[in-house]
Amino acid sequence: MSTPEIRADDRPSYAPEQAQLVVDDPLSLDSRDDAPALIRALPVQSFVTVARKLRDEQRLDLLLPHASAEQITGIFDLDAWERDRIAVARAREWLDRIVDAYREGEVERGRLARLIHDTDPEMWILATAAATAVAELDEPDNDERRQQVLEDMSALHTWETPDGHYIVGVPDNELGRMALRVLFAVYDDNLVEGRKLVSAIKWSVHAEVEEDLLRWRKGRLADLGFPEWDEAMRLFTPLSRDAVSGRTDDGEDSPPAAHIPERRATLPPANLGAPHDVLRRVMHHLDDAEYDLRLREFLLLANELMAAQRYEPGDEALQERAVGQAQATLNLACELLLAAEPHDDPEAFIAARITSVGLRKLFRFGYGPLAKLRKAALALHRGGQVSLKQVGSLLDRPWGPALATLVGWYPELPVDSKAGSRPLRSLADLAHATALIGEAGALAQLTFAAEGLGVDPVWINRVDEPERLCLGDLVRTALVSAQLPGVGPGDELRPLGPADLRWAADQLLDARGQVPAVDAALRAKLRAIGAEDRGDALAKILLPRLAIELSGLELGEGGEPDLTKVGGLLTIQHVGMWLKT
């Protein structure tokens, strides 16, 4: 069996606007007389999007009977794999939907067999083989052998093939019944092809078949603009300003459009960023031919970003995320160019640079500052004593989440009050991310440096639950400890007890509920380590928590503060196991 021949040039021609209408409203196919031709005109990625939507509507009968082998193969490539392994459940469901749509559409006999040969026969084998037992009946009339097989498969749901050559057993669940429905449909369409499929399920070396299938899939994905990972990672090689400003040659011989295929691989995104973005305004300065070329390049860039980050090619949510990343970095590159070289007509200048060097090189220029941010974040993670099991886990918000999202190959900013992240799309975002890394570094230095608070890192391991500890807890504890009566300037940090907390609440809080003495001590320590400029940012995050804890102490039995209700400080309650040893 061999990889199918894809005849992309045979695809009917339709205006992109017509295809986009189908993508936006797939159910409109039900009322179109030209639906078969329009379906075959859909690019592969758009076809898969339509197929997913119609699957959710239980109306794949509108689409699949009219699809080409290339489009069906696109479903397999984009929605039937997890990394380098077949996602058996999803793949089998698609086979079941295909044979069901062929039956509902009353497709002529023999077409299903042709589809199997024109797509990937190996996918039909592997998707139905998992958890499927096949017993061969050498003599179909041998009832004793048949009875023995049925007894051996008593725990399975069994089916005897119409030719009497095989008994197939599957688990008695929906996934197993899907496999039987597919096999029954293939046998019903073509007896010989059904026998070949069942025989291949029984006798094929499945690991070798999957390896071949993966190799062919990678080739087709490359045709769609999803390169191999090592090739895609070249996108994260920064280019200098001179390489895109036109001052010098960057040493790369390929013209700016050499990597863009002649045929549009898929439909363009609805826009290239928010209306206020430089990139979106600049694109409207291009003539129609150049605009179309750069839209295709933009989509290839988004696909390359997906490949570099090992996103599943068929994941629409991740595809949308990659589009947003490409938009953001290109917009950042435009702002960087304009900030360095003011022009009377800045949009015309950027449009000229895009025409000259292309979007891919412009992206690599915009990635340069992101690469520096990533390098700084990694250095802090590896040498700043700010991480336990997870990157930045010892840092307070917002620094911990920021460090975690900035160390990836594509650095991003955390989204406030959410678990996600977003790309850096402007010089303001770049300045914000730089400040967060600087503040996180200052916090780590303040905590552990001898000129700062000089906290011994051993305290991290003395805590009963280190994963719940933040450097801010250590800083607040050290600052309060230094204020306690009888404590000298060189004394080591110690966990706070009930009496310490009561004294701190009485003596450190002023009438406005603030802690001015602690604020002054914090800024003095920051001056000592050369980070005085970070004072406002650190005080804004660290000190309000201290004031809240001290002003809200809950008293337990005997009138002493209840240590189980205290957070944001290191108390003897938090090191109970260490105290017992």
What's this entry about, in short?
InterPro entries: DUF6178. The chain has 581 residues and is mainly alpha-helical.
pLDDT < 50 stretches: 1-9, 264-271
Sheet-strand content, in percent, reads under 5%
Helicity, as a percent range: 55-70%
Structure annotation, total helices: 25
Major beta sheet, specifics? 3 strands, antiparallel
On the 0 to 100 scale, the average pLDDT is 89
Order of neighbouring strands in the sheet with most strands: 3-5-4
- Name the overall outline: flat
Q: Structurally, how many domains make up the residues?
A: 3
How many E strands?
7
Report the structural category.
mainly alpha
Q: How far is the N terminus from the C terminus?
A: 68 Å
Radius of gyration: 32 Å
What does this structure look like?
The chain is mostly helical and 581 residues long. The chain folds into three domains: 213 residues, no CATH class; 160 residues, no CATH class; 123 residues, no CATH class. 56% of the residues lie in helices and 4% in strands. It has 25 helices and seven strands. The strands form three sheets. It has a three-stranded antiparallel sheet with strand order 3-5-4, with helices on both faces. A two-stranded antiparallel sheet has the order 1-2. A hairpin with a 2-residue loop joins strand 1 and strand 2. Helix 5 crosses helix 9 and helix 19 crosses helix 21. The chain is flat. The N terminus is likely disordered.
